[in-house]
Specification:
Mean pLDDT of chain A: 74
Oligomer: heterodimer
Strand content of chain B: 35-45%
Number of strands of chain B: 65
CATH class of the largest domain in chain B: Mainly Beta
Mean pLDDT of chain B: 91
Largest sheet of chain A: 8 strands, antiparallel
Strand content of chain A: 25-35%
Number of helices of chain B: 3
CATH architecture of the largest domain in chain B: 6 Propeller
Number of helices of chain A: 6
Helix content of chain B: under 10%
Radius of gyration of chain B: 31 Å
Distance between the termini of chain A: 22 Å
Number of domains of chain B: 4
Strand order of the largest sheet of chain A: 11-12-13-14-21-16-17-18
Helix content of chain A: 10-25%
Shape of chain A: globular
Number of strands of chain A: 21
Order of helices and strands of chain A: HHHHHEEEEEEEEEEEEEEEEEEEEEH
Structural class of chain B: mainly beta
Shape of chain B: globular
């Protein structure tokens, strides 16, 4: 999804007006959330589900030619191509979570799991049978638990060089987060299959290759350090952020880092949890940061980066900041929705104001979503509702 | 009875130690990088694929009883593993990690970074090896150098501490400990906790050494010195080619190349003798030859030195060792990317059969010879004759070339011998000298129960004699740097370098893959995605036929065969050399490897000496061939001849005349023909196919009309820096064109001797526009290692459109195989000729072989200038000679002879 496709997308969405079809985007706030049948009838057949939920975009016959006018054509199942693999697991995941950065919405809330499984089987059956592809020996797959992989990453987005110490976090929802372990910088987020270990071939030493679609890449950082410390005299001391550990439970991943000053004294421990966000506004992701104090947290500044990094920021679960692109690509308009006591937004940074024992903020990104120019209570209500949904 | 049994079992000296393999789950490739025991007796294994497996029942007599459970995945390699106080530590490529299962579900859920405070540049060769503890509880880690293009044989330290041994404290603090390492694959401690490393032969490593690592020591490979204060202060890098003047710690033991090409790690044999009568001696893993070695070291003048022995062959490509409490030796196997004796993955178990082998247990040096202690008493009346003992001394060259041959310093006669009262110790007296390795072979020595020695040779590294002045001459001696590499392959064409199939006109069923022997079935090869070998994977592999034809030529290639298999190398498609393994050679004795084939069995020409061809191992074939000679009427005047054939550098055939074999393709004998590799007999892997055509010296009949001195009137484009320097014409690193004075050349042959720099690219333009600022004509590419895939010999056309504007460059005949390397002189001949019937055509010859041809359509101008275009700044093109021969047909020309 390139930036700048917004206005056209908006137009395209405005055309959507098929009754009962669940395509929910914030565009113009016109599309309604998908409807559930008011009364439970006999379970619908796969065909009925398909016609009701999928055909508008993917066509009655699955040929990708639906009645909806889309910026980018919907997948033709008859041609056998599936964005993220044609295994029942992969297709179920796509239906459940959607494809962030594309027009494929998530049906995790709208459809029961049994229905989604039926649909998955149905659309796979539409594809020519001999196009089923064996997973390559070197491909790492994410199934029902997150997978963390370390390796050398290829150039990602604006980063021209390989990332020699890289980390990939693959979630069952199909999202993969890429990090540079030096300073633990987020490099970008992919959607789709996980990764191909090219370093399992020959002598080794080649890259860990993300296989998904790059939904968004982080822009080049303005500073090498993720954290700085604003001292009383106003000077900023650069801190170093080092990976301490990665932890994986059955449904989440925690990346734990230590932030140290120039004397290598520990200033704070930071725990990041990336996760998918799938709600009324379409699929996206969030990154939650929990800080634990070691020395004083006051004055600690976290590099927000550039406008494209996140759209919203909540502090301790309350919506605090909303970011939109400003008049120039480098500018950032920040709407302050509330003034948290704990942090403040200074251009490019979140700065900690109070010396709390712990602190939490979350950055949200919904790459397919257009933000309206004006603040609107209904919109904000939708945004708040989205934040709470997984 | 016992004697008979033992004697029978020890025929080959192998069966004192039985070998079997654990059985991982189907489809699991266990490329072992590290092993250790958990406190509960389970085995933990880390692999090159970043997995950690926990194995139950690893020591059960039935290897199939082992149960494998995946504990962790997603690591970046894992070439060292250690269990410390119940916790699993793995050394990844870029991080030392602690793996924890906090929720007790049997799977790792937390990976702690103990440290990642050592440099990685991203170079593919930057392995991190580990993971012993020193006596203070610090982790010991050894870091590989990086190897970069184009001078890939020079190791370089591209990030901090590459080429160092590091100590890592439990809190993650990294301290550099010693430097001068190249590829320190094996790191471990001996029975008293002293730290040892094995390095791998290569630049500045004449053979594989076993070194005792001491703090601050420099061990020979200079690249890592870049991080020392001296080089940091001067901001320079150590010379890649000239010896540095830094004192080296001599290795405790040099391992002969015939025994080890890639040594893995080592462990001390159990004190209690459960692994045989070699308590506390170091047992080493060997990857390429797939065997286990033993090193018996002693302290002489305060430093370790000693002898190395073979212990057990045919174990598979072993790189990691681990002893079990019951004396079983576990070997972790892998050879991916390097090749080695199959199997190339898995875990082998080596167990002593509890019968004391008859071996040399210890060797102790004396001022005047050696004291050799045996495991069993010698026969009661052993007559040790001087001819039964072979002592030769040798040393190595310490230089930048890849390894060094043994420099032989001659035999040392045994001047006296004594046998101890208990008949277990033999003292040999001979004039040995420090600064050498002594190779001692004992022949015909028998034990009191009439056994021969299981292994009759040891190689003892004599750094010092027990007394006298300390010797200052190292075994690996400073030697004058050998000639630069680029001259080694001058005149050769690499036919499979890069795009391996590009210059082969027939290759049905052949594919570029990685190949190794199938561990389950050694008569087959197993292939995987990769670039290591050309294999006839099928389904119906045809012959592998080169596009160019060759006359007199030298040919070099590497080959690898599975068990009981064979192939044929057919020179010109007609003259055959049989290549086969030992098994096939035993079954078909008339066709051992290197047999030159006759039309029928009696005409086969056996080799002078029989080469030993091991299934699954790569071997080298090199031969010089002289084509048949014919007179003007086509009658043969001289038979074709194999002038010399070598297998693994040993001459096996000399001056053998041959008749052409029956050819399915109905080809008749002539002066030229393609190189054909047979794929129909068995699976076979080929690699690194090179040809050096022997030039006939014949030139086109026309007198030359342009000589290399006559560049008067040639014009250069603005901003270029073309000049003559030391007799060479060069663009001097700047882009720009040099155009001939005349622009009326029509049909001609242009011959040049040229050299292009690493990463450089240039084009010769023919029938080019007269003005230096204009482009156009027929382009012939000179490119060895510039990223553009169109390599030397590629043909392009840049024509004018009907409206006279410049069109686009059309690469009409790309040549993607890397025929000639960078910085290597080669001969280029480009012929441009129009004929009324066929139209215009351009032919390109490199080093005397025709490697490309293209017909040209009407867009191409019918005359023009010659232009040399150094396409981009940084390319350095050098031209030694530049000659042009006029081929335009004139009215008075004699008619050419009809084609044969």
């Amino acid at each position: 999804m390139e930036p700048g496709r917004g206005p056209k997308l908006f137009l395209a969405m405005a055309v959507v007006a098929v009754s009962g079809v669940a395509i929910a985007f914030a565009a113009g706030l016109q599309a309604a959330p998908p409807l559930r049948p008011a009364v439970a009838t006999e379970s619908p057949t796969a065909r009925e589900l398909y016609v009701k939920n999928c055909a508008a975009c993917h066509g009655e016959t699955g040929d990708g030619k639906g009645t909806t006018v889309l910026e980018r054509p919907a997948r033709s199942f008859k041609a056998g191509g599936f964005s993220y693999g044609n295994t029942p697991d992969a297709v179920l995941r796509t239906i459940t979570h959607g494809i962030p950065g594309s027009l494929m919405p998530s049906f995790g809330e709208a459809l029961a799991e049994a229905d989604r499984k039926q649909l998955a089987a149905y659309v796979i059956a539409l594809a020519p049978p001999d196009l089923v592809v064996e997973a390559k020996d070197t491909v790492m797959v994410v199934r029902d638990k997150p997978v963390i992989a370390r390796g050398k990453l290829p150039p990602i987005g604006p980063v021209a060089n390989e990332t020699v110490r890289g980390l990939l976090v693959g979630l069952p929802s199909g999202l993969t987060f890429a990090y540079d372990i030096e300073e633990m910088r987020w490099l970008g987020t992919y959607s789709g299959e996980f990764a191909d270990r090219r370093d399992w071939i020959g002598r080794g030493g080649d890259v860990l290759l993300p296989l998904g679609q790059l939904v968004r890449a982080a822009p080049l950082p303005r500073h090498p350090q993720l954290f700085t410390l604003r001292r009383k005299d106003g000077d900023a001391e650069r801190l170093s952020t080092r990976l301490a550990s990665t932890a994986r439970s059955k449904d989440s991943v925690r990346i734990i880092c230590e932030v140290r000053d120039s004397l290598r004294a520990l200033v704070a421990q930071v725990e990041e949890t990336p996760d998918i966000l799938a709600g009324a506004l379409g699929p996206g992701w969030k990154r939650t940061f929990k800080l634990q104090r070691r020395q004083s947290l006051k004055g600690l500044q976290f590099d927000f980066g550039n406008p494209a990094v996140a759209r919203w920021c909540t502090v301790d679960h309350e919506l605090a900041y909303m970011l939109t692109a400003g008049p120039t690509p480098a500018a950032l308009d920040v709407k302050i929705l509330r003034h948290p006591k704990e942090v403040s937004y200074v251009p490019g940074w979140i700065e900690v104001l109070a010396d709390a024992d712990s602190l939490q903020w979350t950055l949200y990104e919904l790459p397919g979503v257009i933000l309206p120019a004006a603040e609107d209570e209904r919109h904000l209500a939708l945004v708040r509702a989205s934040m709470e949904l997984r | 009875m016992l004697t008979w049994l033992v004697g029978a079992a020890l025929l080959l000296g192998q069966e004192s130690y039985a070998v079997d393999r654990l059985d991982p789950p189907a489809g699991v490739i266990l490329e072992v990088g590290g092993m250790d025991w958990l406190d509960d007796g389970r085995l933990v294994v880390s692999t090159r694929r970043g997995q950690v497996w926990i194995v139950e029942h690893a020591l059960d007599p039935d290897p199939k009883a082992a149960r494998f459970q995946l504990f962790c995945e997603g690591l970046q390699e894992g070439l060292g593993l250690k269990v410390v106080q119940g916790e699993i530590y793995v050394l990844q490529r870029a991080e030392l990690s602690r793996l924890r299962d906090t929720d007790g579900d049997g799977e790792c859920d937390t990976i702690d970074t103990v440290t990642n405070d050592f440099g990685v540049s991203g170079n593919y060769h930057e392995f991190a090896f580990g993971l012993p503890l020193d006596t203070d509880g610090n982790f010991c880690v050894a870091l590989n150098l990086g190897f970069t293009e184009p001078l890939w044989w020079h190791g370089r330290s591209l990030a901090p501490w590459r080429g160092y041994v590091l100590k890592i404290a439990p809190d993650g603090t990294v301290t550099p400990f010693a430097n001068g390492f190249r590829s320190p694959c094996g790191i471990g401690t001996n029975a008293v906790g002293d730290l040892f490393v094995t390095d791998n032969q290569g630049d500045w490593m004449p053979a594989c050494p076993l070194v005792h690592v001491k703090q601050g020591g420099f061990y020979g490979a200079p690249a890592s010195l870049v991080w020392t204060d001296a080089y940091q202060a001067s901001r320079t890098e150590p010379s890649l080619t000239n010896p540095v003047d830094v004192p080296r710690v001599p290795p405790a033991c040099w391992i002969p190349y015939k025994w080890s090409r890639s040594t893995g790690d080592m462990r001390p044999a159990p004190k209690d003798g459960s692994f045989g009568p070699f308590a506390d001696q170091l047992i080493l893993a060997e990857l390429t030859n797939g065997l286990v070695l033993r090193a018996d070291l002693e302290r002489v003048r305060g430093e370790y030195q000693g002898a190395v022995f073979l212990l057990r062959e045919n174990v598979g490509s072993a790189v990691r060792t681990l002893f079990a409490p019951d004396g079983t030796l576990l070997l972790g196997l892998t050879n991916r990317g390097w090749g080695g004796l199959a199997p190339g993955h898995g875990i082998a178990r080596v167990r002593w059969n509890k019968v004391t082998p008859f071996e040399i247990r210890h060797v102790r040096i004396r001022q005047d010879g050696f004291e050799i202690e045996f495991t069993e008493p010698l026969a009661s009346d052993p007559v040790i004759r001087p001819e039964d003992v072979d002592i030769t001394l040798y040393h190595y060259d310490w230089w930048w070339e890849y390894g060094s041959p043994e420099r032989q310093d001659g035999r040392r006669a045994v001047t006296g011998s004594e046998i101890s009262l208990d008949r277990k110790t033999l003292t040999l007296r001979a004039a040995i000298e420090a600064g050498h390795v002594a190779r001692v072979v004992l022949k015909g020595i028998r034990s009191s129960d009439d056994r021969l020695l299981a292994h009759d040779e040891f190689n003892y590294t004599i750094n010092q004699l027990p007394e006298g002045e300390l010797c200052t001459t190292p075994v690996a001696r400073v030697a004058a740097p050998p000639p630069a590499r680029s001259t080694q392959w001058e005149g050769w064409l690499r036919l499979t370098y890069g795009d391996a199939l590009d210059l082969w006109q027939e290759h049905a069923g052949w594919k570029l893959v990685d190949a190794e022997l199938d561990a389950e079935d050694p008569t087959r090869l197993v292939t995987r995605e990769g670039f290591g070998a050309l294999v006839n994977i099928g389904p119906k592999p045809g012959p592998f036929v080169s596009s160019p034809s060759f006359g007199d030529a030298s040919i070099h290639l590497q080959f690898m065969l599975p068990k009981d298999s064979s192939t044929t190398v057919l020179v010109q498609g007609l003259y055959g050399i049989r290549l086969c393994d030992d098994e096939y050679g035993m079954r078909v004795p008339r066709e051992v490897c290197a047999t030159i084939l006759g039309r029928s069995d009696p005409d086969h020409h056996a080799p002078l000496t029989r080469p030993r061809i091991v299934p699954g191992q790569w071997h080298k074939l090199r031969f010089d061939f002289r084509a048949a000679r014919f007179d003007a009427t086509g009658v043969r005047t001289e038979k074709a001849r194999f002038v010399e054939v070598r297998i693994d550098d040993v001459v096996v055939q000399e001056n053998v005349e041959v008749e052409a074999l029956e050819s399915e393709r109905k080809v008749v004998e002539s002066e030229h023909g393609p190189l054909v590799l047979d794929g129909s007999r068995s699976q076979v892997a080929f690699g690194d196919v090179r040809v050096r055509p022997v030039r006939s010296g014949r030139r086109p009949a026309r007198p030359e009309i342009l000589h290399d001195d006559d560049l008067e009137g040639w014009r250069a484009s603005a901003g270029s820096a073309w000049k003559r320097e030391d007799g060479l014409l060069t663009n001097a690193g700047k882009s720009g064109r040099l155009v001939s004075a005349r622009s009326d050349y029509t049909d001609f042959q242009l011959r040049a001797r040229v050299k292009i720099s690493a990463g450089g690219s240039a084009d010769l333009w023919l029938r080019a526009p007269a003005a230096p600022e204009e482009s156009g004509g027929i382009g012939v590419r000179i490119n060895a290692s510039h990223p553009d895939p169109a390599r030397t010999g590629s043909i392009s056309v840049l024509a004018r459109k009907p409206d006279a504007s410049l069109g686009e460059v059309h690469m009409i005949a790309p040549r993607r195989v890397g025929l000639v390397g960078e910085d290597t002189w080669f001969d280029l001949a480009v012929t441009v000729k129009s004929s009324p019937v066929e139209g215009a055509a351009v032919t390109v010859e490199v080093n005397g072989a025709r490697v490309n041809y293209a017909g040209l359509d009407a867009e191409v101008p019918d005359h023009g200038a010659i232009a040399i275009d150094a396409g981009h700044a940084g390319s350095v093109l050098e031209i030694e000679t530049l000659d042009l021969y006029d081929l335009s047909v004139r009215a008075n020309d004699p008619k050419p002879p009809p084609p044969r």
